[in-house]
Amino acid sequence: MTGYAPESLLYNRDITFNEVISPEYREFLWNEWKRVIPRKAPFKYEYEITTAQGERKRVLEMGQAIYNEKDEVEALEGIILDISERKKMEDNLKFISEHDTWTGLYNRRYLENVLARDAETVSTEKRALICINVSPIQALTLTYGFNYAQDVVKKVADALRMHCTDKRQLYSTFQNQFIFYVKGYEDKEDLIQFCRELVGTLESILSIERIGGGIGIIELNEDNKCDMGQLSKNLLVASEKAMNLYNADIGICFFDDELEAEVIREEEIKAELARISFDENYDGLYLKFQPILDLRTNKIRDFEALARINSEKLGLLMPGEFIPLAEKNKLIIPFGRKVIIKAFEFLNKLRENGYDSVRVSINISINQLVGEDFIKDLFNLIDEMKVNPENIVLEITESVFASDYFEINRILGMAQKAGIKVAIDDFGTGYSSISRELELNVDTIKIDKYFSDKLLDTNNTDPIIKEVITMIHKLGYDVIAEGVEYDEQKEFYVYNGCDKLQGYLISKPLDPEAAIEFMKNNCNN
Ligand code: C2E
Ligand code: MG
Ligand code: MG
Questions:
Q1: Phi and psi torsions of 419, nearest 5°
Q2: Whole-model pTM?
Q3: Residue 432: pLDDT band with limits 50, 70, 90
Q4: Which residues crowd ion ligand 2, with CB under 5 Å?
Q5: What is the mean predicted confidence (pLDDT) over 266-275?
Q6: Which of 10, 152, 245, 518 could bridge to 251 as Cys pair (CB 3.0-4.6 Å)?
Q7: Class (C level, CATH) for 265-522
Q8: What is the mean pLDDT of residues 371-388?
Q9: H or E stretch including 444?
């Protein structure tokens, strides 16, 4: 093991064992023996030796002292094992557990340890975390494959590494996410300046790929410095917000009080949505109903159900705020079911008041539609609540067809077979598949308020809206114009053969009782 022949070591002929021990360990070993001998304790120590060939070896020594009758030490005996291989493996494991194998950067676990250690030490240095979120790289995987995207990640890591200094350490904390731990900066402006440099570096790589990213910043303080879980969540929020900021491809955003308030509000709305969805005794959800005027008969034959939340804590909430959160948090299915139940209750109220041919239109999100058993559950509710399927309209936005046209069309076909009508909402605002797909299982197209607004701008002369109405009729669908607020708009739609109108000109969305009253006052029988 030592590379020396036994004779060389016997009686210290050529060399003493102490000299074989690498110098930096000698004193520790001496002290350890001194400690265990009076206690008659066993000795166990790991250290390094230098062999006759000059090679360093890691060894483990286990031994004990031999005592005579007078309790004096006569000799030390024991064994010394070569554990270099084991040590190498251990070092390797340590490296793997502290590094991201792809980029070679320290990983999240290591950063957590560094932060925990620094949180313990007293220092006046300012400290901040900067999260570089390049999650749009994910899109490259879909287009060009995994290896291509991974190479871009590597390029980003190598370029960011160039910005490392003693005071700025880089970590690869998650897939497509890096964190700079910055210490000893002057002020916010200093951080922003650094982030601008990072933006420049990132742009040089990402703009060729036609993708962007976001940079989120958190300054560490007494309150947040210990909670790595919360810190990474907030960093992610800030970096995602940065991605959607201004028109920059790579934005920069601080996690500050305002953003924190936004996150807290989102959490509260999420809790409200969950309570509405699952607590039978809680009644935070209610629906308003907006009348839709049938221009052919000049009567109200439809209402659109519009969800509202009356929260004990947050007051009145509008769907523009809570529906996207319900979708994001997978609560839209149970929440949407509650909406359907309330809409059916209103249908029954209409029938009790003698309006049994009036329809109620219900907004359905894509995730509801493709959710397991949507149709089965809908049919069950129809049976249970004894509503007439002919009085139900499902409103969906046309973007739903972009995801899985055949599956969605099949589901809508089943609804239609049962007598339910289908309307496409907000037509004209996004990707349009209507004119290309002749076999859509749809009855009505609702053209977006955008068109009604455009009429005002162009003094009722916009030729496109006229064409749109003609085209929809040619395809065999009815047309409802949304967002009608003025008489001039109504005149235009009447003149151009639009079938129905919805908007403040006819009525704002109404509570159920007011909606029934509205029917009575407008002689709709
Ligand atoms: P939408 O389905 O296009 O509903 C029409 C929106 O325009 C409603 O806003 C309505 O109050 C508003 N509106 C109607 N007429 C006028 C007008 O003349 N002028 C103006 N300025 N606005 C008018 P609301 O109630 O805030 O709903 C917004 C959106 O939220 C709805 O747009 C719909 O997409 C969604 N939504 C509402 N309830 C539900 C629901 O229960 N489930 C789902 N998935 N989405 C819903
Ligand atoms: Mg709608
Ligand atoms: Mg609409």
A1: 105, -5
A2: 0.74
A3: low
A4: 363, 395, 425
A5: 95
A6: 245
A7: alpha beta
A8: 96
A9: strand 444-447
